[in-house]
Amino acid sequence: MWKISTRVLAFSLLLLRSPHALPLQSPNPILLVSTIDFLPILRPLPTIPTLLSSLRYCSNDAGGGSDTKSGELVRRIVDILRESGNSMSLVKHKLDNCGVAVSSSESESVVEVLSRVRNHWEAAFTFFVWAAKQPGYAHSQRAYHSMISILGKTRKFDTAWALIEEMRGGRTGPSLVTPHTLSIMIRRYCAVHDVGKAVNTFYAHKRFNLCVGVEEFQNLLSALCRYKNVQDAEHLLFCNRNVFPFDSKSFNIILNGWCNVIGSVREAERFWREMSKRGIRRDAVSYSCIISCYSKASNLNKVLKLFNQMKEMEIAPDRKVYNAVIHALAKASFVKEALNLVKTMEGKGIAPDSATYNSLIKPLCRARKTNEAKEVFDEMLRRGLSPTIRTYHAFFQILKSGEEVFDLLEKMKMKETGCLPDKDTYIMLIRRFCRWRQLDNVFKLWSEMSENGDGPDRSSYIVLIHGLFLNGKLEEAYKYYMEMMEKQFLPEPKTEEMLQAWISSKETADVQRIGLKDNQLDHGMSSKKTQVTCKNVDLGRDFQQQPETRKVRRERGFSFWE
Q: What radius of gyration do the chain's Cα atoms show?
């Protein structure tokens, strides 16, 4: 039986219609046992207006959206959820009296509200339960999946399983549980590196009368590799060869984990040889993984050798292979050759996309070759390709002042660009401003992030707290640490250790300060007594050195000594 948090269980009992989460047991747990013995020249920078003026288009669509009625409903509910703070009873009271009606036609609006408050699980869950009680409304599959993802992200797994049980619909209603439902839980377990429960969830397919095949097994491997559990994924692959036969896709998933998630050339080469020993055919995906690994490691010779090997084996390179080779060439300052390769891939019938040009722009910006990056960007626009968020991130790396950063940020937020800054954009800029010691700009970005509907999450808090701590703003760092804990975001061990050490030293210093004041007070009283005593002693000690003086009293013609 899983250990259930008291607070989460109480919250679930109050709000859920199906309060008890069933424990997930695996009839046949997979053993994670391996059956194999694994053996620059800088050019003048263009003026910033010239650079920013051309960054006007982006591929994401920000203009569309719901109609006026749905948009107003979303805005009103989100304002209630954000303004009420951490008081869920107040949130529920305001929702009950806000006069907003949610019907089945508003299911997409419910999903939109959950998306905007996804970093505050209690507010999202309170709204989710409130919406379920509205007349004429029933949660859609997307709404359930959104809420389950939010709960899993904050490790409220028991409540998430209670929702999955609710999705089964009882004996009469249709079940809304699909393989995608369980894949959400698998990814959340993999994110917190709980491989055992991820595997148990994989076995739960049979419990929900869902088919289990090679595709579901490969989804499990992908989730494990995505969150750096590559070694465990490799063990699962070899231990289950009799149940799920080897194929190129399964091996490519593990190879991609070593190449692009872990980024270990040594492990990638080992597994590359293992594919050959096992007789697994290497396809274009295999080559794109290993070439990308060598490209990131700046090993241009290996990249070109493998690229030529593909031609010899008559394996047609795909767009990912070309992008990896182009990135390696640009990183090694062979920009002209990289552009020629772009033309070559066009001749092969493979049209370059935004990722192709990002493969050129990113290494050029990192090398501070701004003129060449600008030329590539202009070529990208001439071809009718729209820059993506990654394009903007590359140009953010070469900016040197807060004014330039905010100018480019405003260009992103213009309506014609349709490319709004995301969470990664704000985290990158907050980290940069902390390094520049421009804390006013840090707090400006922090406020802007909340206003744009992308409220701070766990990663945002960790970056902000570290930046404030390293800039000596210990009180502010502690304030945001407490705010983070109130939202039930788990801090990194390093963050918690750092702040707990500061709190301990602060408490020790306070105790010493109080003790010092008491000592000074006691010392002041004793010093006064000492001064009186010393004065008397000094008078006695100097008596013999003073001339004798005696007063004479005269009375009735006689003189008397006093």
A: 34
